[in-house]
Task: inverse folding
């Protein structure tokens, strides 16, 4: 309580000169190049001008006047620094109080969706029409054990609610994450190499899970992936100004609940930021290496691959990224992707993302297809990219107001030789246009229309959806 009162008096003292901010000098126009700086000093109580309402900015000042001016400025800055230090200390005390008294923090969201399928279906391969209901519950329980350790338990029902999904509660809906921060000074000689603490994260989760449309009404939903953590551990820190990370993941288990790992995955990653580069200003270079081994005790298939990514904030509103993935020496084992994001391109809050990706015919190892199904990334609908495809995508967001915004998505999947149409088994076109309306701070109403054309089945399918999302 004493600290709160002390901070209150400091803030009152700093704000007591607020009335001086209303002072307007007769000889200082509002558009003068120094006006903003002069009035900032007035607000701080450093200067108040002359009694006749003038500032006399061109008048010479004496050494005595300069000393008084600098002394006042120094006093005000000391007060502000003291207030900031006390406020930061108070924040830490409040955070500690929350950890000891509140115990566990609970948050999450609940989504309820109603879709009407295939209004445009012509009666070809897809004949079903009608409504489909779905709900999805996501919750997170966070327990901060202390400043260095925390545990989080997550629940995600995914497609288990009226949507044809069969998910096991213990092995698929739940995941647990534990985080530990290790001070580099506690690591002895090894810690001398690190520029920041060593972050250790331990996961127990089902990994990425795909949806399969069992209703027969929503084929564009098949392949949509729920991005869940893999079971394993990660280490990350900074070393010589470079961001480094590595770890182990259990990518696949044997059938049943034996817990025996079938496929092991080791990875390492390093990234470095280059600043002051002409034209592009800054550049981040990141390299990743992955080693996968299936049934290592029986000499199963193995895979070694790497990716190299370049990203840059060319301007505060333009971000560019390029990625090269190498799974084989030949081009058929490559993946290349380029992405451009533009913020506020029409109005404040709007954004545009344009992306193109080409995946070689052998980039995803056929012997490890189940483990590597998402290694080429996802399209804008969270469906994994496939071998021997060219993918062109775009996303646009436009806010009509603080509560209403439009979101458009488009994806064109072509064959590896840039062809679309009959005879190209992986080609398809998907487009979606929707509106999000914020009913309250924690409640969002969403509606969208999606249409997809698949030449392999000579059919256009579509979804008209209405949904409500509540955050708690």
Result:
């Amino acid at each position: 309580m004493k600290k709160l009162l002390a901070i209150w008096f400091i803030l009152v003292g700093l704000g007591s000169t607020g009335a001086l901010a209303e002072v307007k000098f007769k000889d200082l126009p509002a558009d003068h190049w120094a006006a903003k700086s002069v009035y900032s000093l007035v607000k701080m109580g450093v200067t108040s001008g002359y009694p006749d309402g003038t500032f006399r900015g061109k008048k010479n000042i004496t050494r005595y006047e300069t000393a008084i001016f600098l002394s006042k400025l120094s006093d005000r800055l000391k007060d502000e620094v003291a207030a900031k230090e006390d406020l930061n200390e108070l924040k830490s005390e409040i955070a500690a109080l929350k950890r000891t008294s509140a115990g566990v923090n609970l948050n999450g969201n609940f989504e309820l969706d109603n879709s009407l399928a295939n209004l445009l279906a012509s009666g070809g391969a897809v004949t079903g029409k009608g409504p489909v209901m779905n709900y999805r519950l996501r919750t997170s329980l966070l327990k901060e054990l202390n400043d260095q350790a925390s545990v989080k338990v997550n629940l995600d029902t995914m497609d288990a609610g009226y949507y044809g999904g069969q998910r096991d509660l213990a092995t698929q809906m739940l995941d647990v994450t534990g985080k530990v921060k290790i001070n580099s000074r506690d690591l002895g000689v090894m810690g001398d190499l690190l520029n920041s603490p060593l972050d250790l994260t331990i996961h127990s989760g089902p990994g990425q899970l795909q949806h399969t449309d069992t209703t027969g009404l929503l084929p564009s939903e098949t392949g949509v992936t729920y991005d869940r953590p893999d079971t394993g551990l990660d280490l990350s820190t900074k070393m010589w100004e470079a961001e480094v990370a590595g770890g182990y993941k259990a990518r696949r288990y044997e059938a049943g609940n034996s817990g025996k790992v079938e496929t092991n995955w080791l990875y390492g990653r390093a990234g470095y930021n280059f600043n002051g580069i002409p034209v592009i200003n800054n550049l981040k270079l990141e390299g990743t290496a992955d080693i996968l081994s299936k049934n290592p005790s029986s000499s199963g298939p193995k895979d070694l691959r790497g990716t190299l990514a370049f990203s840059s904030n060319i301007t505060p509103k333009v971000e560019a990224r390029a990625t090269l993935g190498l799974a084989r020496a030949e081009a058929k084992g490559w993946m290349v992707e380029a992405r451009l994001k533009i913020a506020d391109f029409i109005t404040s809050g709007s954004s545009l993302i344009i992306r193109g990706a080409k995946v070689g015919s052998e980039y995803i190892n056929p012997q490890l297809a189940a483990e590597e199904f998402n290694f080429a990334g996802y399209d804008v609908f969270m469906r994994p990219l496939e071998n021997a495809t060219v993918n062109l995508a775009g996303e646009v967001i436009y806010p009509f107001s603080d509560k209403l915004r439009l979101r458009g998505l488009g994806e064109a999947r072509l064959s590896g030789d840039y062809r679309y149409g009959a005879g190209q088994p992986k080609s398809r076109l998907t487009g979606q246009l929707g509106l999000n309306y914020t009913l309250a701070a924690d409640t969002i109403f969403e509606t969208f229309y999606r249409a997809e054309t698949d030449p392999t089945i000579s059919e256009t399918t579509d979804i008209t959806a209405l949904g409500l999302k509540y955050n708690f």
